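Sequence only, no structure available. Ideas?
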Amino acid sequence: MAIQFDTFNRAHGLGYTSVFTTGNIKNFSVSLAQWFLTKDKKYLHAVRVLGAIIPTFFIGAFLATVLGNIFGVWTLLGVCVIYFIVFVIYRTENI
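Reply:
I predicted one. Tokens follow.
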């Protein structure tokens, strides 16, 4: 989990957490309030990015639960493959 937390920590220039989502919800709320008060587009950008990340986290947790009940521990192998593919894409874009 530490590798995931350290490797996947930015999206579209914004910091976020990929292991848990409480910080993302806080940042979403703060950015939304700042956007309402200032109408600054950087806060709207943060709202859009975090607004996509937060439901994705819950969808991933739901799918992991369902697939874990179906495939058991073999589900972890699929997750490792997906993480490796995302890691390769992420690293090749940032070179």
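The longest helix spans residues 41-71.
Hope that gets you unstuck.
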